[in-house]
């Protein structure tokens, strides 16, 4: 090979680096080994080696959300890809842009034991599929895959036949420019209808979702002008913390007082929110109200609820526009926010340490205390399980971008992997993961050592009720034998130590203080195992 030629595996690795990718998550096998090696040793990149292929995808998804870049993972052929199925679906539902560089069996080896129709596997997840057509198209195909991932906001699987890897090609650099949609400002008849609905409302309320996080100041200004309470969806958590008009969550995650405030509103102005059926308490909280929905993505409007008026527009500029016309028309403030109590109705009543039984800790109290004691600049992730709504309600984050759900596909066992990806995306900040015992056993235990090996600042809180809690409560409600849902797990704190980390068991309020001291002195990823009574874990707030 001359200086003017390179192998395809080198061209692929270099094409990834050309897209400003410094970190890739991977598990190497026959079909991606040389690509991964050149990314590290030829291109100066970092490969984070996962313990399971699905973990590589989940790490890349969280890395993407934390950094705003397209996350990249790589796995081998056949079972390497099928092991990523659930993780790819998680990325599709979460709408995360990422690339999965996946080797494929040689086109000439029809009877290869790992041969499978990889396109059909990928299609079933809803992810995109990009085939490397031939050695000469490899760099262009990678560039197109990055372009698609950014614009389609979903995982794109790049399928690479392994018999291409050592083919010689001419070096080529190609990066497609991103398509940036123009900022949209509402106008016309629908805009006027929206202004009319808001101006005539006696008790308007402003709701912000993930699509309005950057419009915080604009929405606060509109709230103060209208004297309208402020609420958020789950993915907007913490956006208005500290403002006197803030009532916290919109829906069943909110406090009883906040729920009553929402129920008494006559108009909801929703910015960057889907109006998901859980947000609206299955429609109860929007019934009989006028609803204006503002969203930049047309596909997100009317997805779960048909508003009275929908504006496809930017949240911040639309809020400013509404404010301008309210002032022009000299519309008086509603006075609704002046009816709010003087105390903070966004916060749930504190847990009682006296409710901790022998050998167990009261979950509400433990979460309240951890909320005070955990590092304030934390990034927080939650795995799936019945404990999660209590975590959402009691553990705060600095801002909405510091909070990440890992169960958009409603699958448990995906939290540890995403926590590791987040920790690689923001290495200067501590990452806190709340997971359940079932989720930790399913996906967390296999990757905790990855956090140790890669020296991540990770605090793992395991809510251990020794059961699959959601199923346990259903069996108990029907007075059935719950033994099928109960498990005699090992000590997770001891397992964490055996995997190279730190671990503390918490079975009392005094143990919790010991755990908090251990968190403050941690020198490695740490597991704090909260021992819970499966019959006393609060029901999900849904």
Q: What's the CATH first level of the largest domain? A: Alpha Beta
Mean pLDDT: 94
* Tally of domains: 3
**Range of helix content:** 25-40%
How many DSSP E strands? 20
Quickly give the CATH architecture of the largest domain: 3-Layer(aba) Sandwich
Largest sheet: 6 strands, parallel
CATH superfamily of the largest domain: Thiamin diphosphate (ThDP)-binding fold, Pyr/PP domains
Strand order of the largest sheet: 3-2-4-5-7-6
Low-confidence stretches: none
Question: Can you tell me the CATH topology of the largest domain?
Answer: Rossmann fold
**Total helix count?**
18
The computed structural class is: alpha/beta
Shape: globular
- Separation of termini? 62 Å
Sheet-strand content, in percent, reads: 15-25%
Radius of gyration (CA) equals 25 Å
Describe this structure in words.
There is one protein chain. This protein has 542 residues and is of the alpha/beta class. It folds into 3 domains: 6-169, Thiamin diphosphate (ThDP)-binding fold, Pyr/PP domains (Rossmann fold); 189-339, Rossmann fold; 353-531, Rossmann fold. 35% of the residues lie in helices and 17% in strands. It has 18 helices and 20 strands. It has helices at residues 8-18, 33-41, 53-67, 79-82, 85-94, 118-125, 138-152, 189-200, 216-226, 256-264, 315-328, 363-373, 388-394, 415-425, 437-453, 469-477, 492-498, 509-520; strands at 6-7, 23-26, 46-49, 71-75, 98-104, 128-131, 155-161, 168-169, 204-208, 230-232, 246-249, 267-271, 290-295, 309-312, 379-382, 403-405, 431-436, 458-464, 502-506, 526-531. The strands form 4 sheets. The protein has a 6-stranded parallel sheet with strand order 3-2-4-5-7-6, sandwiched between helices. The longest helix is centred in the last third of the chain and has 17 residues, at 437-453. The model has no long low-confidence stretch (mean pLDDT 94).
């Amino acid at each position: 090979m001359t200086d003017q030629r390179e192998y395809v595996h080198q061209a692929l690795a270099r094409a990834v680096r050309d897209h400003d990718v410094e970190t890739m998550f991977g598990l190497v096998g026959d079909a991606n080994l040389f690509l991964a090696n050149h990314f590290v040793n030829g291109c100066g990149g970092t490969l984070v080696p996962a313990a399971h292929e699905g973990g590589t995808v989940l790490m890349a998804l969280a890395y993407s959300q934390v950094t705003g870049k397209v996350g990249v993972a790589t796995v081998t052929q056949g079972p390497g890809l099928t092991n990523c199925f659930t993780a790819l679906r998680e990325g599709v539902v979460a709408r995360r842009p990422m690339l999965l560089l996946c080797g494929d069996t040689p086109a000439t080896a029809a009877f290869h034991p790992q041969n499978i129709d990889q396109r059909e596997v990928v299609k079933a997840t809803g992810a995109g599929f990009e085939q490397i057509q031939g050695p000469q198209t490899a760099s262009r195909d990678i560039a197109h895959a990055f372009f698609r991932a950014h614009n389609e906001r979903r995982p794109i699987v790049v399928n690479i036949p392994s018999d291409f890897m050592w083919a010689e090609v001419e070096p080529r650099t190609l990066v497609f420019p991103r398509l940036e949609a123009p900022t949209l400002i509402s106008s016309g008849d629908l805009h006027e209808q929206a202004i009319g609905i808001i101006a005539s409302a006696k008790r308007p309320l402003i709701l912000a979702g993930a699509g309005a996080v950057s419009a915080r100041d604009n929405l606060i200004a509109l709230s103060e002008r209208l004297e309208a309470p402020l609420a958020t969806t789950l993915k907007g958590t913490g956006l208005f913390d500290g403002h006197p008009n803030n009532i916290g969550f919109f829906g069943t995650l909110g406090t009883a007082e906040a729920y009553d405030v929402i129920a008494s509103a006559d108009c909801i102005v929703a910015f960057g929110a889907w109006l998901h059926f859980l947000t609206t308490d299955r429609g109860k909280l929007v019934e009989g109200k006028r609803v204006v929905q503002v969203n930049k993505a047309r596909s997100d409007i009317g997805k779960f609820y048909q508003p009275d008026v929908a504006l496809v527009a930017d949240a911040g500029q639309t809020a400013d526009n509404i404010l301008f016309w309210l002032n022009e028309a000299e519309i008086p403030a509603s006075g609704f926010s002046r009816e709010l109590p003087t105390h903070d109705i966004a916060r749930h009543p504190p847990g009682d340490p006296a409710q901790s039984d022998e050998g167990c800790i009261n979950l509400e109290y433990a979460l309240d205390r951890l909320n005070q004691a955990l590092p304030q600049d934390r990034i927080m992730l939650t795995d799936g399980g019945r404990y999660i709504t209590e975590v959402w309600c009691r553990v705060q984050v600095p801002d909405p971008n510091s909070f990440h759900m890992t169960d958009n596909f409603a699958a448990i066992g995906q939290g540890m992997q995403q926590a590791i990806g987040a920790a690689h995306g923001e290495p200067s900040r501590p990452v806190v993961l709340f997971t359940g015992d079932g989720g930790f056993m399913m996906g967390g235990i296999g990757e905790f050592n990855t956090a140790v090996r890669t020296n991540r600042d990770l605090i793992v809180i395991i809510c251990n009720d020794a059961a699959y809690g959601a199923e346990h409560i259903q069996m108990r409600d029907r007075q059935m034998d719950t033994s099928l849902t109960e498990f005699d797990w090992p000590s997770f704190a001891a397992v964490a130590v055996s995997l190279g980390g730190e671990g503390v068991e918490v079975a009392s309020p005094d143990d919790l203080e010991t755990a908090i001291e251990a968190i403050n002195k941690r020198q490695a990823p740490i597991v704090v195992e909260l021992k819970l009574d499966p019959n006393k874990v609060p029901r999900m707030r849904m």
